[in-house]
Request: fold
Amino acid sequence: MKASDVSLILTTTQGLFSETEVPQLYVEIQEHRNQLENELGRTVSFEDAVYSWMENIYSPIMNEILDDVRIRLASQDRKISEIYFEIYEIAQKNGFRNIPLAIQAYARQNSSSIVHMLESLLHLGRRNIASIA
Reply:
């Protein structure tokens, strides 16, 4: 991997990933590049693959991570990059055909701890109210 590739990845991901995470993103981009080349029947530059990956995979996942309250609640103590990689894995299993479904699956898998926490808080509140009455 060239220094210019690292720089391009860090720039396009707007500082949300560390330099140690770039190799994993590089692999994702190269896989996307291979898929594009197979579909288009021609060579695709790394830069073009990065921009296609950004538009079709990275941005849809990151926008949901940043906008979806369920994901933010389920993942408060986790880095955005960790969440991204987990959702990417889920989306990869269905060939990135349904990224919103991958987001929902991630939220379902990780929301149970939030539900339990909220239930605990509600029960504590009920006990305090019952002791006052």
User: Anything to note?
Assistant: The chain has a mean pLDDT of 81.
